[in-house]
């Protein structure tokens, strides 16, 4: 405990936090444009989230999930850090769990880490391709009840499970 004491009037209650929750952008960030990152940051700010967490995927994770080739993890992470430095007006954090692990990280493990680390409620910001991929996993039914989705992209073909749980997600404006 620090030695700094403050006095407050009798009956003082601290003001309620005006910002709640975490917006998590889960993606490989290989094809995500600066405009999409800006859109996610603005969404985080207008919806009064505590912060925007950018979660870049390791290349082994991307390879297992979608068979796409991507740039090395450190290059994509450096791009996000550079973008973050240019946008200091937003509360943004680049999560480095996959960089520490340096191997495949299942989406369940990543989401467990993120939900334990950051304040609730949790909103997952996904591109439409990543949302369809997430809906194809067996654990989707468990996770969709614990968090909500914001999907960035054009309305198109959606996975049947996304249509089934349409009340738990919405299109990002």
Automatic annotation (TrEMBL):
Origin superkingdom: Bacteria
Name of the protein described by the UniProt record: Uncharacterized protein
């Amino acid at each position: 405990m620090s030695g700094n004491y403050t006095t407050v009037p009798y009956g003082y209650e601290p003001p309620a936090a005006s910002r709640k929750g975490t917006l998590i952008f889960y993606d490989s960030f290989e094809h995500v444009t600066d405009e999409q990152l800006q859109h996610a940051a603005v969404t985080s700010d207008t919806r009064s989230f505590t912060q925007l967490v950018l979660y870049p995927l390791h290349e082994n994770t991307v390879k297992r999930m979608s068979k796409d080739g991507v740039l090395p993890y450190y290059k994509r992470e450096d791009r996000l850090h550079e973008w973050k430095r240019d946008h200091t007006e937003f509360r943004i954090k680049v999560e480095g769990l996959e960089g520490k692990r340096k191997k495949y990280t299942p989406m369940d493990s990543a989401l467990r880490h993120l939900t334990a680390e950051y304040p609730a409620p949790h909103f997952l910001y996904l591109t439409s391709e990543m949302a369809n991929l997430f809906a194809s996993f067996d654990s989707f039914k468990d996770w969709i009840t614990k968090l909500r989705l914001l999907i960035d992209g054009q309305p198109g073909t959606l996975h049947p499970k996304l249509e089934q749980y349409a009340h738990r997600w919405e299109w990002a404006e």
